[in-house]
Amino acid sequence: MQTMSNADSLADDVKEYVALKSNSLKLQMVESLSLFSSDILSHLLLLLVIFMALLFFLIAVMLFFSLYVGPIFACLAVAALLLTAGVILYMNRRSMFVDMFVRCYCRRIFSDAGNISDEGAEDEK
Q1: pLDDT at residue number 102
Q2: Contact 68, 51 (CB under 8 A)
Q3: What count of Cα atoms within 13 Å lies in the side-chain half-sphere of residue 6?
Q4: How many degrees, rounded to 5, is the angle at CA 19 between CA 18 and CA 21?
Q5: Does residue 5 have a pLDDT over 90?
Q6: CA 48 centroid distance within chain
Q7: pLDDT digits (tens, 9 = 90+) for 66-101
Q8: Among 6, 65, 67, 118, whose CB has the most other CB atoms within 10 angstroms?
Q9: CA–CA–CA angle 71, 75, 81 (5° rounding)
Q10: Distance of alpha carbon 93 from its chain centroid, rounded?
Q11: What phi, psi does 70 have (nearest 5°)?
């Protein structure tokens, strides 16, 4: 009789442990996904602001050049500058963007998942 009670108690404890671990994993995933999406959104907003600043800078450069060489040649010079920058960025896109973002997001997702479980373990002690 005693062993049956202990076995039932052990089974209940195992079920509770599995449920708690499942909830912990869900919470870790929610936090990791929210941090991941906030990183993506902040990077996109930063790029938008940089592109707008670059646009206004290029308009100012074009207006400045148009005083000396005329509006058509100023537009062509700015277009050539943009084309050159685009080719350079395209040729270096892997090292400049892809690798950087992969490292950043992997570090964010995997390090935070480990920190969450460590903090939870410290809170229980």
Answers
A1: 77
A2: no
A3: 3
A4: 65
A5: no
A6: 15
A7: 999 989 999 998 899 999 998 998 888 787 777 777
A8: 65
A9: 145
A10: 17
A11: 95, 155
Q: Which one-letter amino acid corresponds to residue 68?
A: Y
pTM: 0.57
How far, in Å, CA of 76 to CA of 55, rounded?
15
Two tokens, residue 93: 């896109």
Q: Which two tokens stand for residue 80?
A: 């050539």
Cα(68)–Cα(109) distance, integer angstroms? 53
Q: With a cut of 80, say whether residue 45 has pLDDT above it.
A: yes
How far apart are the C-alpha atoms of 50 and 81, rounded to whole Å? 17
56-73 pLDDT tens trace: 999 998 999 899 998 999
Q: What is the dihedral of CA 97, 46, 48, 77, to 10 degrees?
A: -60
Amino acid present at 6? N
